[in-house]
Amino acid sequence: MSMEPMDLRSDTLSRPDPAMLHAMANADHGDDRYGESTATTELEEHCAALFGKESGLFMPSATMSNQVALKVLATRGGDVLCEAGHHLDEFAAAAAADLAGVTVNAVTSADGFLRPEAAALPTTGLVWVENTITARGGRIHPLPLLTALKEWTGRRGIPVYLDGARIMHAVAATGVAPAAWGATSDAMALCFAKGLGAPFGSVLLGTADFIRVARRYRRWYGGALHRSGPAAAAALWALRHNSTRLAEDHANAALFAAMLAESPHVEVTRPDTNIVHVDVSRLHLSPAEFVVRAAEAGVRVLAGRRGEIRAVFGGGTSRRQAIRAAERLIAVAGRIGPARTLTLGGVPWWDRIGPSYPVTVSAQAQSRTWR
Ligand SMILES: *Cc1c(COP(=O)(O)O)cnc(C)c1O
């Protein structure tokens, strides 16, 4: 077996292909601070139309989109209600406290789907959802639940923000159009640097008034770019050409998970999209130790905080590599794990690992193009 190393730590690790580089090379070099970057304006208008929002604003990162959104939507001294483990909670809560003067009120539900009727406080000034949910293995927050959430908050005058860094994965997996997801929030952002494969960038979307104020904070935070054309062109190219390809990443993730589910030494959760969580706690070693063994076997993965490791499938990983990675990790687990006989007898893994919540998967998902 060749030892070609495979990097499944994240879907931010692919390289731009020649067509994306070509789009970047042919982009304008107008100064966006004077509103003169045609590629940037085109990207903003394209995304706003796609998600049914009035306006868009190109941002250097989804992290900054989220912080700017907090600044515009949240009330200083109020709290932001979200599910525990969301990117905001795990990586950006200190920034939210310092920059926007809010506290993140994180609640944990069994399935990862926020239900505000059980958790909202009198001080709740903003409801925050994430889709897909990274810490839950790329789980799709189902549209009917988001619609119900929007109705609940709408009646109380509380805005809803959607951290849609990987929202195009939900689109690709369900076939539900971007605008339907967009309608469940007052404002939202997506990230172009994950599975979509652009070098960096995000777009913040909302009403024209929201974007007008967001533009001011983008400048405060140092996110107003000058000649942003090439970056915007890469993002637009990624959205137009890589959105349907995400379904291939989902298929690779599912195959990888199905193979690992045949190992008696690990527990695998059926992935909705491109992130696979493999629970290694049965092996009686920490996820960090498993990560070291996996790297020695030529597969780079990340340790999670709940006894699991994660493997993420993006544009840089082929089906053949997904299979090879699963084989290597099965071998690693087998070497560590106590010898036990397989009693699975060819039962399809889908029958053994039931979905824990309803997700509608459309047959059209793989054939639709979102342009
Ligand atoms: C990656 C990610 C972000 C941050 O995006 P960057 O562009 O890397 O700053 C925010 N939210 C979620 C859910 C993400 O997955």
From TrEMBL:
InterPro entries: ArAA_b-elim_lyase/Thr_aldolase, Low_specificity_L-TA-like, PyrdxlP-dep_Trfase, PyrdxlP-dep_Trfase_major, PyrdxlP-dep_Trfase_small. Residues 7-280 form the Aromatic amino acid beta-eliminating lyase/threonine aldolase domain. It comes from the Bacteria. Keywords: Pyridoxal phosphate. Pfam families: Beta_elim_lyase. Its cofactor is pyridoxal 5'-phosphate. Belongs to the threonine aldolase family. NCBIfam families: GntG_guanitoxin. This is Threonine aldolase family protein.
